[in-house]
Amino acid sequence: MDYNQKIKVVFTGSVGAGKTTAIQTISEIDPIRTEAKPSEVSVLNRKSSTTVAMDYGELTLEDDTKLYLYGTPGQRRFDFMSHILTKGALGLVILIDNSHSSPLEDLDYYLNLNAEFLLNNPAVIGVTHYDQAIKPSVDDYYNVLRERGDAWPIIHADARKPEDVTLLLHLLLATLEYS
Amino acid sequence: MEKNQSFSLGLIGFNERQKETFTAILSLAERRLQHIWGVVDISRADFFLLSIEKSQSEAFIAEKNLPRERCIFCTRQRLAEYDDDVLFFPLGGVPQLSSVVAVLNQVVNTASLAQILTGSHSTPPIIEPPKTIVLNNDDNFFNPERGFFKHLLQNKTNRQVYHFNSPASSYNLYVDSVEKVYYCEASLKRLDSCLLTEDVIVINDVSQQEWIHEVVDAALATRPLSNLIWYIAFRLSNGRLLRGHSDQDCVYLTRWPDLGVEGCGQYVKLAAFMRNNAVCLTAVADKTSTPLSAVYNFYNACYLIGIVEKSTAQELYAKNITEDKQVLLAKITNRLKKINSKEVKVD
């Protein structure tokens, strides 16, 4: 499979942030998921299974071309998959679980991990699980971006809601068009 | 006079948005009205609500052949007492609830019921609504320094509950100004009709015990206070620019608003443009093909949550996107819209 030639968007971010769910929410096919029992202790505490290679979904556009939706694994030992999947992607959707112990560091981590891709391509950030943890606030996330010199949009998102996931993608497209 | 008789009201000189607002206020007033009132087409109306001041109405009434005793007038002037047929509009296009109740209860008594029921005006009124409502300077701009919204913006210390009471429903909105969050069982959209009038909003402090019982134990969803302020400012702006602001100043967004707020999602392009360019609001409207009134609403809301700054000079960046890429983006956008409108079934 040549990942470079596809019209694709990649969902990345911390374990349990909702990457698999987001793709499942809007994909028109049953997403292909590669789940397994997690091997990292920090992940074991949160989930009984997690993505180990990638998630994959599709949307068919007007002329039967496909928009491919890829999700990266959350466990950091699979970070190399990010570099494979983002090649040729339109942009990156970074999902951060606000109820994690250190969500601001998570954001910093994924921006660093994808720094090379983000030199020429946009990202949008969805903060999930806000109903479980109100801190950090969106202002705190923007402070992280400001310190880095980044200007990506951030919204609260529920990966189970189609309107939230499509809003993230609309934002990505608008960023492509205007940024 | 018979209780609960039905009367109809024709609105003259109001645009569609203002008619919707009036109808919403009328529904709020329902319980306190002596009769059943509805807004109808002017040709079928028992009474006529004119958007003009009473003192300026004579020529208009004569010209349009309206029955004088069944006309109600509007005023934007705050007075100690109003005539029975004068309705007070404290905000642009938003009538005061108590005034609606008083006037509609009174006009039926004043007008001859026989005349009303038989529709005595032999010649139907000639209706050609004025192009725009004449507003005084105060109504041309959005002033957030009023009533409930002023209180919400200025309170920085207390936990408070805003009781929204209307005949149809009642909601409690809990605000923690220190944590900068709010809690409400209803969606913001449900508060819409209550936002348009202050009569139905009661503000109280909340004790720690009440807070635990009403908010924590009830597990109400937590939302950022900035989202609430954004939404209310957007809704109350009603196409008017903030008082003291100019649409010729070059401005830009210092960061993105939370576009997940109800009503905000449709302004993604506007937000993206204002985030990446510093231009005046009229240019924003032009470049993004957005109505200026919507740009005002959006700007006001963003300004009040503190994410707008002025620029000393215009900075307009043209991004070179190939035609192929533009087509691709349009196709993806269309596909995403179908997901939300559920035009495409997911297998």
Structural class by sheet pairing and helices of chain B = alpha/beta
- Main pleated-sheet profile of chain B: 5 strands, parallel
Task: Please identify the oligomeric state.
Answer: heterodimer
Count of domains of chain A = 1
Largest sheet of chain A: 7 strands, mixed
How much helix is in the residues of chain A?
Answer: 25-40%
Describe it.
The complex is a heterodimer of chains A (179) and B (347). Chain A has one domain: 3-Layer(aba) Sandwich (Rossmann fold), CATH 3.40.50.300. Chain A has seven helices and seven strands, in the order βαβαββαβααβαβα. Chain A is 35% helix and 25% strand. Chain A is globular, with a radius of gyration of 15 Å. Chain A has a seven-stranded mixed beta sheet with strand order 2-3-4-1-5-6-7, sandwiched between helices. Chain A has 179 residues and is an alpha/beta fold. The longest helix of chain A has 17 residues. Chain B has 347 residues and is of the alpha/beta class. Chain B folds into three domains: 133 residues, Rossmann fold; 75 residues, no CATH class; 110 residues. In chain B, 37% of the residues lie in helices and 18% in strands. Chain B has a five-stranded parallel beta sheet with strand order 2-1-3-4-5, with helices on one face. In chain B, α9 packs antiparallel against α12. The chains are: A alpha/beta (179), B alpha/beta (347).
